[in-house]
């Protein structure tokens, strides 16, 4: 009973998080059934670090100070339950188990309930930032029992990324609030990644712009209000030559079939359940799915050609327009995701404070971007803001860039390049700012064929009409 913190699962993420804690003076113990991984933790540690790796659950639990704080970093799903069951015989009332993986949030609710019944506090905590983030400062999204969080707080605040000295971690809410927030983070991540990919595609395939020019563009953007981790790494990717074959840019030789582990899909699926429209996240998930049908796409490319029509835009104007359109779309993507969190927080009684979410997303995580500070300010000005588009400052910036978004969509249509996220971001904007929508006609149709009734704008009540 001498170690401050325990970790189960000593893959690179688990190891790096422990070493990060050890850097900050905490003593840490790790458990992995794989003896090599357990040993590698101690090998990677320095003299000043107090670390211990083991392969035995019972002696591992005995190493940790009470009330124990133990994190699991194992694959989501059955492995999480298996590890919990293997620890349970040795855990005591008041101990805390933190699941640091991308678990499906209903699983977290179930685990919270099962473990609270035994007096053990269970936390679902999203961790973002990849291997480097884990080692030098991730963004962390914990949810669970608020008073139990105090045991974890000093450790998590020490290891988190810092922005203006403030740690990118905070208690988010009860139950699965943390996992849910990380799930939506990933949905936004999918959409921004796709937005960047569409920018690249429109320039390269639509306008024949050279790789070097596109590289420079992303580099310039990263020194502007578009500065963000994903834009930054894209500029790096566009510089990386293939060292193995020496044939030039590695990107040109990477297969265009995209994979996914499910968090983006869950974001869209749950958004539909709670009626939170996130069309750009849906589109990003669907584009990865379409990419899978390579053979069919090759056949269709021959059967359904479209060469595009000439446009008279010069390269400088094109790049400037894209920049504004990118800003516009980016804000609309975050607006969709944050609005989903707003709706989910009410639906599941999470008690999320969106200012805090924006705050801990400013650093460490994959979707960190300078615009997050603008979002934080918007939520600071209005704690109950349902949608970022209703913030006056952001509305002005989005208003000023909307024409560029319209122009980019038109250009893409003329070139036959798919820009689903640009298009859905614009369609979301245009529907959200529509005082009236043609859904009156939908209601009339429903009543026509199914007697589903409708409300009127001029008289209270519920109506049905014999239409023919
Ligand atoms: C992060 C990431 C990470 C995620 C991967 C892969 O915040 O560090 O979101 O948690 O697992 O990016 O996601 P896909 O395989 O679904 O693209």
Account of the protein in words:
The protein folds into 3 domains: 5-175, Rossmann fold (3-Layer(aba) Sandwich); 182-432, N-(1-d-carboxylethyl)-l-norvaline Dehydrogenase, domain 2, CATH 1.10.1040.10; 440-468, Up-down Bundle (Single alpha-helices involved in coiled-coils or other helix-helix interfaces), CATH 1.20.5. The strands form 2 sheets. It has a 7-stranded mixed sheet, sandwiched between helices. The chain has a two-stranded antiparallel sheet with strand order 8-9. The chain contains 19 helices and 9 strands. It is globular and about 75 Å long. It is an alpha/beta fold and 468 residues long. Bound molecules: 6-phosphogluconic acid. Residues 102, 128-130, 186, 189, 260-261, 263-264, 365-366 line the site of 6-phosphogluconic acid.
What can be said about this structure in brief?
The chain has 468 residues and is an alpha/beta fold. Helices cover 54% and strands 8% of the residues. Residues 102, 128-130, 186, 189, 260-261, 263-264, 365-366 line the site of 6-phosphogluconic acid.
Hetero ligands: 6-phosphogluconic acid
Mean pLDDT: 97
What is the top-level CATH class of the largest domain? Answer: Mainly Alpha
What's the architecture of the largest domain, going by CATH?
A: Orthogonal Bundle
The Cα radius of gyration reads 25 Å
First and last CA, distance: 80 Å
Sheet-strand content, in percent, reads: 5-15%
CATH topology title of the largest domain: N-(1-d-carboxylethyl)-l-norvaline Dehydrogenase, domain 2
Order of helices and strands: EHEHEHEHEHEHEHEEHHHHHHHHHHHH
Roughly what percent helix? Answer: 40-55%
Please count the beta strands (DSSP E, at least 2 residues each).
9
Instruction: Name the CATH homologous superfamily of the largest domain.
Output: N-(1-d-carboxylethyl)-l-norvaline Dehydrogenase, domain 2
* Poorly predicted tracts of residues: none
Any idea what the shape is?
globular
The helix-and-strand class reads alpha/beta
Number of H/I helices: 19
Could you give a short account of the major beta sheet? 7 strands, mixed
Number of domains: 3
Strand order of the largest sheet: 3-2-1-4-5-6-7
Function: Catalyzes the oxidative decarboxylation of 6-phosphogluconate to ribulose 5-phosphate and CO(2), with concomitant reduction of NADP to NADPH.
Pathway: Carbohydrate degradation; pentose phosphate pathway; D-ribulose 5-phosphate from D-glucose 6-phosphate (oxidative stage): step 3/3
Family: Belongs to the 6-phosphogluconate dehydrogenase family.
Pfam family, one: 6PGD
